[in-house]
Amino acid sequence: MANIREIQSRINSVKDTMKITNAMYMISSSKMTHAKKKLMDTEPYFYALQGEISRILRHLPELEHHFFDAREKIPAEERKIGSIVVTADKGLAGAYNHNVVKLEEEILEKPGIHKLFVVGELGRHYFAKRGVEIDTNFQYTVQKPTMHRARDISGVLLEQFRAGELDEIYIVYTRMENSVQSDAEVLKLLPLERSSFNEMKMPLNMYREAIDLYPSAEVVMDSIIPNYVTGMIYGCLVEAYASEHNARMMAMKSATDSAQSLIHDLSIIYNRARQAAITQEITEVCSGARAQQK
Amino acid sequence: MDTFGLKIIASDKVFYEGRCRKLIIPAPDGEKGILPNHENMVIAVTVGIGRMEAEEGKWQEVALGGGFAEIVNNRVTLIVDTAERPEDIDVRRAREQRERAEEQLRQKQSTQEYYHTQASLARAMNRLRLAQDKKWNL
């Protein structure tokens, strides 16, 4: 049987750890409510934007624009592929970071010249060690996503896309399905593909009219698409932020739970050891007394 | 008088949803007015001040960010970065934003940074212009 003092110190250390995990759980759950509210505020914009673009594209099938240009002439090995990877700033969030990193690794397997834009400290460290090209001027944290930051990020990417420094842009982030499930996901930002906007099925007899673009298709697209990209990035950041805190909350909850069960088990062992020691002492006293009587 | 359905969606909230009589929005080449039963159209919207008349004779001014307006079947959907009422604008913050942008414009920047700051400056000036017309914000 283990030493009583050893068990006691073990219990104390587990208790200390539990205090930390419990505090982190509380922090994450309060941030989580924030993030959820933000997510709910943003969702109408996010979905309306996608819906409108798909509607405009449906009405204007012949539209030619540089954001739709797939640059098919460039062979697969020479395509410059940029991906935005949204990870957390620190670990302790269960499988949250690993899922994102794993998905990004799958993209890196594909042929092409890869360049990473990492949002979040943890991903930055991971990919820096792995020796992939990372845009070093791209230092953004994932805490408190704002429209301003999304605008900065999309500005950098659109500029590089226009200049031909990037041919394809993806974003890897975690989408929150519901409060218990979230999945890592890859989304293609540019070039836009017609098929990627899920087209609504329309009844055949419905009258569909043409839509005019004012002042011109070019100007309208120039104004909509950067906005669309910014909106998508903002939406992804908010989704990832909410999922991160959800993941951390769950991880910390299970850590606290397992600490509690560990303490429970340890205190049983502790009590047994204490009881055994007392019994032993009594036996010793008794046998000593009996020896003196004789 | 006829009305049309109007929905203004900003990136952080649904700003307005309901009927509207007249709407004036800032387009790249000047302001554009929308009356009920307008032709189907998509219009680019730039940073500027929009006005809408929801009830007769009551004009509401809105500071708009960039985006676009879509008119289909007498329904208008205005999707913009930001939409703010004059009373919601924080003048001091807008002023600070303007000063910061002006400061950055004086420094040497790449072309991309230049456009970025310019857009930021435009947004700040727009907010200030709308807010400073109103007495309660001065």
The oligomerization state is heterodimer
The main sheet of chain A orders its strands as 2-1-3-4
| Overall number of strands of chain A | 5
Strand proportion of chain B: 35-45%
- Percent of residues in β-strands of chain A: 5-15%
Residue share in helices of chain A? Answer: 55-70%
The major sheet of chain B is characterized as: 5 strands, mixed
- Classify the secondary structure makeup of chain A into a structural class: alpha/beta
Radius of gyration of chain A: 29 Å
* First-last Cα distance of chain A: 33 Å
Largest interface: A-B, 32 and 30 residues
Number of helical segments with 4 or more residues of chain B: 2
Shape of chain B: globular
Subcellular location (chain B): Cell membrane
GO molecular function (chain B): ATP binding; proton-transporting ATP synthase activity, rotational mechanism
Membrane topology (chain B): Peripheral membrane protein
Subunit structure (chain B): F-type ATPases have 2 components, CF(1) - the catalytic core - and CF(0) - the membrane proton channel. CF(1) has five subunits: alpha(3), beta(3), gamma(1), delta(1), epsilon(1). CF(0) has three main subunits: a, b and c.
What does this 3D model show about the protein?
The complex is a heterodimer of chains A (294) and B (138). Chain A is α/β, with parallel strands linked by helices. Chain A contains 5 helices and 5 strands; from the N terminus they run αβαβααβββα. In chain A, strand 1, helix 2 (96-109) and strand 2 (113-119) form a beta-alpha-beta unit. Chain A has helices spanning 4-59, 96-109, 121-130, 147-162, 217-293, and strands at residues 80-86, 113-119, 168-176, 182-190, 212-214. The mean pLDDT of chain A is 83. Chain B has 2 helices and 10 strands; from the N terminus they run ββββββββββαα. Chain B has helices spanning 91-106, 111-132; strands spanning 4-9, 14-20, 22-27, 30-34, 41-45, 48-55, 58-64, 67-72, 75-80, 83-84. In chain B, the strands form 2 sheets. In chain B, strands 2-1-9-8-5 form a 5-stranded mixed beta sheet, with no helix packed on it. In chain B, strands 4-3-6-7-10 form a 5-stranded antiparallel beta sheet. The longest helix of chain B has 22 residues, at 111-132. Chain B starts with a strand and ends in a 6-residue tail after the last helix. Classes of the chains: A alpha/beta (294), B alpha+beta (138). At the A-B interface, helix 1, helix 4, strand 5 and helix 5 of A face strand 5, strand 8 and helix 2 of B. Chain B: Pfam families: ATP-synt_DE (PF00401), ATP-synt_DE_N (PF02823). Chain B: It is found in: Cell membrane. Chain B: Belongs to the ATPase epsilon chain family. Chain B: One of its GO terms (molecular function) is proton-transporting ATP synthase activity, rotational mechanism. Chain B: Keywords: ATP synthesis, Cell membrane, CF(1), Hydrogen ion transport, Ion transport, Membrane, Transport.
